[in-house]
Amino acid sequence: MAGIQKEITIGFKGEKYDIKLSMDLLNRIELNGVNLLKLQLLCDQSDGIPPTSLLASFYALLLQSAGEDVSAEDVWSELINTDPIGLINATKTALASMFPSSIEELPAKKPKPNKPKS
Fold it and tell me: Can you give the pTM of this predicted structure?
């Protein structure tokens, strides 16, 4: 599917959360200091591990959008003390849902109708 998927499911502390993606949510995430494009690029680098504070902030904002009362510090603690690879992979999955992986997946533009010649 091209563009933003409508809903993703992420996990935190053994619970599942349905996140409804929208431009409004993406805007709120970026207004809270998380540059989504930069985070995506950091995840795409050779080691694929973004700064943990940035990852924690992003993941907390996703959880908050599902109604979870969680802070970036809560996510950071979970990241450091339990399953860091799991949270990193969940972040990558969430980001992949927000960005098309290639230009071929972008929505096709409808061709403009030809104007009749006079």
Answer: 0.75
Identify the bridge partners of residue 10 per DSSP, sorted by sequence position.
17
- Dig out the tokens for 25 from the structure: 């949510």
Using an 8 Å Cβ cutoff, are 39 and 50 in contact? yes
Domain tally, the chain: 1
Tell me which residue range forms the domain holding 83.
7-99
Give CA separation, 103 vs 25, 47, 110, in Å: 23, 24, 16
- What stretches of 32-83 show up as alpha helix (H) in DSSP? 36-44, 52-65, 72-81
Tokens found for residue 76: 């950071």
pLDDT digits (tens, 9 = 90+) for 6-54: 788 988 888 999 999 888 999 999 999 999 988 888 888 767 778 888 8
The answer to whether position 2 is within a domain reads: no
Residue 93 lies in a domain: yes
Q: What would the two tokens of residue 109 be?
A: 């533009």
